[in-house]
Amino acid sequence: MIIDGKKLAEEILNNLKEKRKNYGRLKIAGFLIGQDKEKFSFLKIKQKFAEELTIEFRIYEIDENLSKKKIRKYISQILKHKTIQGAIIQLPIPENLPTQYILNSIPAKKDIDCLSSRLLGKFYTDTPLIKPPAVEVIDFLKNKYNLDFVGKEVLIVGYGNLVGKPLVHYFAKQKATVIIANSKTDLKKFLNSVDIIIAGAGKPHLINDCKKDALLIDFGYSVVNNKIYGDFDFEKLKDKASLITSTPGGTGPILVAKLFENFFKLLECRVNI
User: What is the mean pLDDT of residues 54-77?
Assistant: First the structure.
């Protein structure tokens, strides 16, 4: 089965349009630290989705050479305005800056990416107000296609903030056996034996083999010579897997839709965060 992420995102969008009717003017701030065409394009995709919901999505560009304190102060000042109900900082943040320090400049009640220490703390202690979008994507696919993760061996390739870390916690809670792969891992030892492979490394065609009828979900994204690649060799694996996502058009559209679903969940939240 090849997952049509655009079609599934459309389903989520239609549900969100119903929720949108309950609110007046809404605004989300998207922050881009440093000049980066690829990161800017990700924000534009989110801006386009926001337009479908008549939500203003303003992109704020920040000089990466500013001090960490000035960047955090700038973001905090903008987000003090009550006219802005949600915010994201496009990752990755330049290496010269402390990532979590910058992410924590977003108030929890406006942190739709679930990346602030406060909301992550709630997620990792199993009292979440919202969940990281990548977790929501997997949970959505699980419920949509009646997937069973109990007792399954899951290989998670990459241990980043957006995909790897939260999904390790998620699958462990699902009573799956989780294997975490990093740049030093010999993937060949695991590809033909695990039941599920989740990729989020951003390395083109890093994974070119799998167990027959394995479940393959690709969050990886990279651009080479103006062509988009995922972490899986899709053409080689599509007939071997029982379920697979392509890149582009797979998890990406669902991820964006789930980001906006988080936005509405925080709007509806009556808990003092």
Answer: 97
